[in-house]
Protein 1
Amino acid sequence: MNTFRSRLYGAAPWHLVALLGCFAVTAYVLSRLWENPTLLRIVLWFVGAAVVWDLVLGPLIALADRFLRPLRSRPRRLGLLNHVRVPALLSGLLFVVWAPVILQRSEFTFRLKAGLDQDPYLDRWLAITAGLFVLSAGVYAIRLVRSRSRPAPS
Amino acid sequence: MTALGPSNPRSWRSPLRGPWLTSVFGAALLVGLPVMIVTGLLSYAAYDPALGGSNDQTPNAGLLASYIWFEWFTSPSWLYRLNQGVHVLLGIALIPLVLAKLWSVAPKLFEWPPIRSVAQALERISLLLLVGSILFLLVTGVMNIQYDYAWGFSFYTGHFYAAWVFIAAFAAHVALKLPTMIRSLRSRSLTDELRTSTADTVAEPSDPDHLVSPNPDEATVSRRGALALAGGSSLTLLALSIGQTIDPLRPTALLSPRGRSYGDGPNDFQINVTFAEIGIDPTQTGSSWRLLLEGPDGQSAVLRREDLLAMAMVSEELPIACVEGWSTVQRWTGVRLRELAELVGGRDAESVFVESLQRGGAFSAMSLTGKQIRAPKTLLALKVNGVDLSLDHGFPARMIIPAAPGVRNTKWVEKLTFRAQT
């Protein structure tokens, strides 16, 4: 038992049992899809989703955040950082979620399905984004006024 | 490994990362994701895949469909509307929490050396299955509700099988991590965290899983702020989507394809599959249209629209609730399906095969169960909100089935074949 834990495997036996259960179901799913001609595409989107988030989108967001570092609060200076971060993040999130209609990627299908175009979505997203930044700027202005009317900490 | 690459723990600077924060996101997902699993599995069952044909979009499912030992319900009539509204809206609202959780454990992905034991290697494979499947489900779900089918595979196939991989990987992850989650949640007080300002925010004590940065930067946001941002993002997405399933709020679903108004006439509600899409000659829906009925013992009947209108008319307020999560409630008037069944000796039929004038198309012919035939609210609708159906809504006649997925409400019905056996 201790040899299993320390040398052979590296964790308790139930750890292995839980993982084998997970792999068994996955193997069964693969067996059901084995002759499906679209299996390769499904696997591609499956792995692609993880790769795009972990190695592309995630790092890009971190990188963008680095560029905002000069906006941090300093002694005697109220930072703009979070007043840019929050609306930018919300706007980016809305864009990622609703990209197909914002970019009118599915307009042809949508016209057939619903009889509607996708013209308004880009404008609406831009308007929401503008609204978020204006709101955030307003909150910043209020905080700025408040911090100036307060005596500076000695 | 001295350079500041992602494999160097010192290059991860956020003072917020740590087992407590990860566990708070984890706990929220532990509540939300099981709801996603249950509503997802129920949505699949709501098609009654045992009927075969178009009802079963994944005919090769084998044991994965064996949990369906019941026929889908016919009441309450809002059942599928609720199920699917929750599935899609919650799925959208969980996106920020999933991403926040992934952000909080990002350093683990680049850990060096990547493998220290067999146990760790296997666990990392299971995590790839977990992360791959949940992102796959979110991406395919979000694209499907926007009619963007860029994947080159059937949504039903991809979403269903990936869901089973997710269920397995999620169960294993919870089994492995639940004790850590509970211990970590207890390591700090939530009320204290909610009172801690950015200036007072410092990193958690270093942990055996190395989530905490050994080289933390000064905090630019408090944990309270991070939780508010994740939760606020969820609520923003929810607030901007909920209108797609509640008629009076529809205009508030600003970015949803189902937030648009068609006008305020009796037929001005959400259309899925327009008359133009199916490409049939409009004269086929005119005075030459006939409804063909076939019974289980060879009896048959041919009815004109006037014959149907002369039968007992019933009106019901029923939703059309799409698998895509949007819904709309309208007042439908028509003939009870069970009365049509009785005309051809199909009172005890086990199923009915409903065929549309539409040719081809994934759902132009679908079956209903005996339970649905006999449900008093199941109608062959001829009118909506007091006027004839429009061509886009299925004139001359369409099915309306309580509690069922929208796609089962076949439009432009041409033929009903009642069968003794499914």
Protein 2
Amino acid sequence: MTAWQRFLETFFKPEMLAQYWPSIAHGVLVTLEIASAVVLTGLSFGLLLAGLRAYRLVPLNIAIVVFVDVFRSLPPLVAILIIYFGLPGVGINLPSFVVLWLVLSLVLTAFAEEIFWAGIISTPKGQWEAARSTGLGFSETLLFVVLPQAVRLGVPPLTNRTIAITKNTALGTVIGVGEILNQATAAQSFSGNATPLMMGAIAYILLFLPVVAVGRWIETRFQWRRA
Amino acid sequence: MAILTVSGLRKSFGANEVLRGIELSVAERELVFIIGPSGSGKSTLLRCLNRLEEPTAGSVTFDGREVTARATSLNRLRRSMGMVFQSFNLYPHMTALDNVTLALRRVLKKSRAEADALGLAALNGVGLAGKASSYPNELSGGQQQRVAIARALALDPRIVLFDEPTSALDPELVGSVLSVMRDLKARGMTMLVVSHELRFAREAADRVVFMDAGRIVEEGAPETIFSAPRELRTKAFVAQLIR
């Protein structure tokens, strides 16, 4: 057996591909579901919190900043383990995929809030003044003038952050969420062959490469036309 | 009949008193020019009138209403007091037309069609109906400032406050903005203008007010202020402007 054959046997064994593609495909579906749920909740709550922060209500803002800083510094895996293995002790049993969704959503919310907030405060004061001087109220100005600009400013950093956090769906494997990595490691240990892991890797790339591409497209699309 | 009366107006930023008791009244259809060295409080005065800055003391009466009273609806007041800024402050994510119609749609709750009709009329009034679907970044500075004027006019204000409307413009673009302001004056709009456009002041202003160090030093007809000012400070400032 040549080295090349041995390499193929280890990472791309045809029988393995045939046997395990259904479970990897199932993993892709689960990853896709959780990732889209995380993106949806994380980005909308991030925007909501940033918007609320603009009202500068001191107690609320302290709460938001504490939340954001905690979830930006806590490794998601730690939060996942604490919630999944800790909460049953106080009688709360959450399904593993709910725990994964919840933690990743909170983390994305925290990062997205900071990014949207940076967008809000870098929107020039003159924008507020122009809108207010035409009789728009604070909330209307925030909603129609400032947030659209803040969101555009936030798109490039958000794209990167969103990809980084959705990739963390792989952490679900430690609490038994049947996503890609979980299916792949299970298959690997049954078969003693690395092919399923390679399939998982390829599945991740196939899944996230389009997301990266879409992110790039949004970045250019969302910049308002320049002269 | 005075449409705007300012009395005893003071404004401090911390220990720094920027306005030290301003008395001013503007009659309907009058164009009043405010000149003065930078830091004299001209812009702050303008911004106190629609309460973009909160006055520290004194009163502003506009169209029979006390501007600084708690019961005054600030957003309603601001609709009848247009404001034009030095830096235009157009919304970069909206077309010229949407810039003009935002308040019509969101504040006056007009339908899209009705707002667009009013907005196009306002853009037409500043000679920019053809640029309705352009974004601010596609317009020259002079065009942007005219869109900003249209945005203020679309709400059918009783007065328009101009805060150095031509200071950020290249010299060759100033004329187009001044000509829009000249039209406005001809149509009888009441205007309060902070600017250093001497020639325009001479031909269009009814009155020129000279401010220095937070006070009104002198006011009068343009010829008087520019050619025969009473006060030394006015004389020195005007001499600098002319040179």
Protein 3
Amino acid sequence: MTRYKYGFILSSILALLVSGCGNAKIVIPSYSPPKEYKKLSEIESGGDMREGTYMAMAINPEIAGEASSDKKKIDAILINAIKQGLTETNFITIYPIFDTANVALNMQVISYEYEKSSNNINADMQVAFTITKGITEYISKTYSSKATRYSSNPNLLPSKSKILLDLGKEVSKKFISDITPLKTRQLREFKTMPSELDYIITYAKRGNFESAVEDMEEFSGDKDVNYFYNLAVLYEGLGAKTGEMESFNHAKKSYAKAMRRGGSSDEVIVNAKSRFDNFYRLFQMTQSQKNQNKNLSDELDDMYGQTE
Amino acid sequence: MKISKSVINAVLVSVASLVMSGCSVMQSGAESLAQVPSLENQANRIVVGMGLVRTNTVIANMPISADATWPDALNDELVLEDNKQMISDALDMDPYVATHEYTDLYQKTQLGGFGLVAAPRIGALTYSALNRAVILYGPDKENWPTFFDIETDLSTFHKFTDGNLKQVEASSANVYPSVTDALISLMPTNFQKDLQDAREEMIIGFKEVAALKSEKGMYETQIETNDDASQTEALDEQAIIDLKQKILEIDTSISEKEIVADEKETIYTSLLDEATKVLESDIELDEEQVALAKNILLASSAIKKGALEAGGAFALSTTILATTNIVQDFPKELASLAVARIYIPDDKADLFDKRLSRLGKNALYAIPAIAIGTYYAVKQSLLAGRYESIAEIIVEADKLQKEAERDRLVDEENAKNEAKEAS
């Protein structure tokens, strides 16, 4: 081993020991990107009902495979979990009538096993999800989920329904995260504030981004890289709270100002801006898709009454 | 006795950890002053250090769930205090623990040491290592692995080959086969398969380096102890030259394998870094995931603590071996034990014989164990630190989220009360 390596190891150990002495942080809502967005864009429909390109699909209520006594329960769990996942962001609208749908989601339970002994439960499920447009398959993916439980007290073991629910939710979530943005969270670290603005961090931690932004904007002292970075984080928090694009636009401008004032050489700022940029794009995309899908929902409401 | 530069160098990291790792190692340092300055005591310390490295391997491969209680128990000082009596009882029939109080005084008159201060029956590091056995294997010592014999199979120095692990209680959350599997399950889905593959490659790389280091240590021990060997077992000059040549060849192989292992480690850690960056933008605060992250954090902290304690033990033994004539005086030590036999009560004579037999084996394998143990301890500590920082992302986000939510509710309540008072 080289001396350099010792230095690295020692500094790593020291870094581990002193970690946790960072600046104040807050959690802000975010989206995770759908992994199959490119393929999804191929199933967009548009123009045949109203202007705009919407994304909608019907869920086939008949789930293929697995003829066990639990079939009905499994089918219901999968369909509900998919509906719940899709309606979380409405990035893809659920088309209510399967027979007339242009795009459809078909599910097949490839395998399902459930074993229970006095102290153990072992179960697994494998489900294939296929999105078709007309007769063409666009996305076909298979996911599996396992459940292993043990307790020396058999009474503490969960019921079969709970296990089925966990398995069904997990495979559905894996599929949903591939086709639609999911709501998640990010950590944002504040940079040192001028002492007269220290209280802003308390505002932010308590979710009072409105007052925090207002007071920051009124600040007449030195507006350096840290000021603009912190302002960007606050606007980001405000946007995440209100869902208003205007706040995100302010955040974008403030990040740009921070970068111009030397933020490009600061890892915390560069990382935060990079995450924000990804989120900003996803948020724009999601909002735009939701608005376009709304056209379809309005049309369907007119035709069939209120939809989900 | 000369200890190779590489071994001394390799334990420098452990010296740093000795200073930083807290009371068990510090206590062990103080205890060494009261012990007989013997190869047996250094070998025992090294064996306990290996026990910590091996229990670290057990922890890393222990099934874990969001509701498992063992990670918390490993970090709970009160659990250690509670378990001390059980450990003490379990060691009643241990050959060294049961007999050293009868031989210490005489050995000190022959080998030196502070005659007036008695060494503790069981050392602090031994309690720390065996506390892990109680938690991971259960209170019945029949289920514990063999702690005090150094494994002679070079490829399994870092892990136990026996013992029956306790079944992990996990009634309300999923059980993952190991801490690493659980950690990977918290990572973004599209990274999980690549992380598993890269991790397996890295482990193979570590094993290859460790096996070579161990083999080198064996040849070094053969040369170092040659002066003490009986006439019939002594190596001739040519045999020593051959062994030295082999050591040189192994050194070259070690360098080559280390480069390969380092590359594999870099691939795995780079992937972990990449996945961590994505995780930082994509934190899920599902209750089960948060609880699992907390348990991974606790398990990783326990691994890091064990690695630091083991490093401290190796550093202490290396320092003592390098600065005294303990190895050269080994024949004198054996002679002192032979004489001290008269102080052993009849009902413990068998245990004394077992102690001598164990000493013969452990003394031979102690030096290779330092090298291999330090190698694994450093690797374990660095990786556990990385796992800690990953789990901390989720745990910290959850904590901040809950604090913000609590503050928001307090503010809302205050605002309501103020509005009521105003009206």
Protein 4
Amino acid sequence: MARLIVDPDTCTGCEACIPSCPFGSLSMKDGIAVADERCNFCSACVEVCPVGAITVEKEGKAAPVDTAAYKNVWAFIEHEREKVSNVSFELLGEARKLANALGSQVCGMLFGDRKDVDHFAQEAIAHGADRVYVLESPLLKQYRTDPYARAAVDLIRKYKPEIVLFGATTQGRDFAGTVATTLEVGLTADCTGLEIDPETKYLKQTRPAFGGNIMATILDYPHYRPQMSTVRSKVFAMPPRDDSRKGEIVRETLQMTAEEVRTKILDFIKGTETVNLADAEIIVSGGRGVGNAENFKVIRELAGVLGAAVGASRAAVDSGWIPYEHQVGQTGRTVRPKIYIACGISGAVQHQAGMKTSDVIVAINKDPDAPIFKIAAYGIVADLFAAVPKLSQEFHKHLGR
Amino acid sequence: MASLGLSGKRENSISIEEDENMKIAVCIKQVPDTTDVKINPETNTLIREGVASITNPFDEYAVEEALRIKEKHGGEVHVISMGPPQAVEVLKNALAVGADKVYLISDRAFAGADTLATAYALAKTIQTIGGADLVICGKQAIDGDTAQVGPGVATRLGIPQLTYVSKVREIDWEKRRIVVERLLENGREVVESSLPALMTVVKDINEPRHPSLLGIKRVAKAQIPTLTAKDIGADENRIGLKGSPTWVVRVFSPEARGAGGEILKGDLTEVVPLLAQKLMDTKFIK
């Protein structure tokens, strides 16, 4: 078992380590730091200790795998409703940077039915894939966990990629967790930074935790390969499209029959909004200040002019003014648009957890003390019903629509 | 009747003569109430003093859905939680709202578990308590936000998974069938699955009940059974830090945002056009 050791002769009892613990596990006993059972061996305190009194002893693992046998950076090419998701192209762009640092190739992993795959594979190549592994089967037409996981596990076992990236979408999260568990390898969710350590060549994965209050950098032990991560859409830039790029297509067959697939899709009920929150470049959100369902038209109008998606705070959703699909925050969706316009939202920490990584935050609220102003790039202290319609008009003028 | 091996094969096919109830296992987690987590601006470290611990909000929906299924279709609700001894509190809450049985999985050997090792321990526990006909988890925990443990448990148990469920449309214990709606980015997918299965639930699925005063009183002194790594027959190489492929090498505060943005002051006829211009200048509006 791993142990956290505090050297009693070195520890000065300065208490610097206590607030550094993300798990609240440290306290002082007889003037020396001690960790209780909440300690997760994350080593945050080790770095903070000014006298180097804390060490974390980790026991040996099973023999490392032959990491040299694992090569290339793969991106899962996700598609939905007969269209490749943008996040897949963003992953290819990031995979290119990682592959350059490793001196290896960028590969796409693509599953689908006959009608789609060739066209999708060309798109992946145009966005930077050197090679695309393709599995084509009627069972793979739409995403379902069983056939997709089988396809990915078989491919990864056969071709041994060093890194596999997935979009942190509902599909990617459903899928990647299954693949990682089957392969018994690591999976780091929602990475916002990926980097190759120049010395070890390991993948350093950085992600937010505790509702975005802390960041953690995570490595995979060299006993486990491939290294796998999920990444939200818009975290990485879209690479340029070059339709003249050439790439290789490698075809494999799915080793699964229809009877082995345990779920069946009966229907799909399309959402009412034209722009979904996950893909939106701009989001206009309404909160308690909107007052009722009818008043959301003010929010929708601004969203309409900007081609934005409509978001909402928990207060607005719980009041029944707008469906749950629109909720942004800890118990709703986490979004990362270029521009987030919060109207009549006070900005509780739970709401911030779902939107504070947006590039530009705008707050419109009549309470000058609302916490949303603390994270906003621009704020207007005003009644939203006075300010938001005017803002819509302004953009009408600018955009001519 | 609920026997399920890691292979996912039930030991016997279902027979209606059996009087044993269908079993719903719910996995819950105790998490810090992150609303209270703040950064000390001087030392740039987390202030954790007085941070309350709560049941992960998504797991409350999981417990509630299990209770509703039990009330409508019959069955027993067994709630399990892995964590330090203090995690008995969330299990007491589950008992107070009506769970039939609860189990704490607690052992120093589990410490440092990442999602792979956590899912393994939860799956072994479900096996140890005799398997389940339906497993329910919250879609993710609010501290880690990974959404990986649910699929991990399903995979370890060898049962199908239904993630992001916003509604259970039909459930038929005898025909071993469930139909749910899954909340995706751009709509809802209606999916049918065989049972046993695992589902993870989103907030929209229900409104969790609160425990009654009587319920709280009843469980105050309840003894919560605790299972150790040995009790669940865990392979020591698959639990805790040792069974975790990932390793946190650094924890730090996010870069502070350009503190104190610009509050545009003045008459709306001036500040609104100014705001519009500033946003146009970002080039993000097309």
